[in-house]
Amino acid sequence: MLMNSTTARKSPIFQHDIETINQMINKYPKLRRMLLLQDVLSQFQTKIKGDPMKGTNLNWDDEAIVEPIINDLQRCSRILKQPIATLLNPSIFDQEALLFMCEQLEKVLNQKISRVRKLKEFLKIEKSLRLNIIELVNAALKNDIRFFKDSGKRLRLRYELLFFIGSALIQSCLKEIASKVTKSFLEEWWEPICPICGRRPHVAKLKDKKRYLLCTFCGAEYLADQFLCVNCGNVDPYALKFLYPLKQQGLRIDFCEKCKHYIKVIEEERLEFSIPYGLEDTSTVILDIIATQKGLIRD
Q1: What is the CA radius of gyration of the chain?
Q2: Strands across the sheet containing 240-243
Q3: In the chain, where does the domain assigned CATH 3.90.1670.10 lie?
């Protein structure tokens, strides 16, 4: 069971994230909504940081237990070419712990986003078993948007809110997995979607003449083809373009002329300032503004 919020340890890393995000919100008010959601997740992470169970019935600090599980997940992922999250058995999550996490998330949402009024209603619905929270988590692991749309319609809740809740509940577990998989697994994946959570990246890093895609949800950093659109899979180099914004040394925007989606690229060897790990997306929001002005699309 999760420790309560009064005993959970505050992480200086997450505290720095929160401060940086708040600075960005003040600096870029047009991106307030996107940044506010990141702020909510960072605040939520501080509340559950000290729990080694991460909403599951496994102690992720116990290497003797976790290592064989990670090895088996990597092996199955390689064979099936599926992200690890889709292979997780949702029964590893503890329902009571998830409910506690929901309550902590509710507190942050109500504090940060005053217009969110439906979360208490959602908790009541879950407790009355009209919606099983394990099913919600399983849908988040599988990125099953149809489940969230159907559940949202049935419960008269915005499906985006349900998806956000489900994502928040699995994030700390997936971050643990991403930190424990082998380097070879991440470098041999060679697919545009994240090998851990299956989501599409918004940021890439260019180092040693290689492109690494960075999942800002679970933190996985994995090798990928430089000439590949992570949205539509286009590999035509003549339809893959890039922008070098003025006064943004070491930053660029890669985009696809076919689908108009873009990804932000950090060229580490040319970068003139340090970007803290975990804040790559937040620290490069100026690129989102430029890309939007150019008519490009971010998922």
Answers
A1: 19
A2: 221-224, 210-214, 203-207, 262-267, 251-256, 240-243
A3: 183-293
What was the pLDDT predicted at 287? 94
DSSP 278-294: T-TTGGGHHHHHHHHHT
The CATH number given to 183-293 is 3.90.1670.10
pLDDT digits (tens, 9 = 90+) for 264-273: 999 998 988 7
Model confidence, pTM: 0.87
Contact 219, 177 (CB under 8 A): no
Contact 171, 93 (CB under 8 A): no
Report residue 67 CA to chain centroid gap.
23
In sequence order, what are the residues at sequence separation of 6 or more whose Cβ sits closer than 8 angstroms to the Cβ of residue 41?
168, 171
What digits encode the pLDDT tens for the residues 187-200? Answer: 999 999 999 999 99
Distance in angstroms (rounded) separating the CA atoms of residues 34 and 87: 29
Q: How far apart are CA 29 and CA 20, in angstroms?
A: 14
Mean pLDDT, the chain, whole residue set: 87
Question: β-strands 262-267, 203-207: how paired?
Answer: parallel
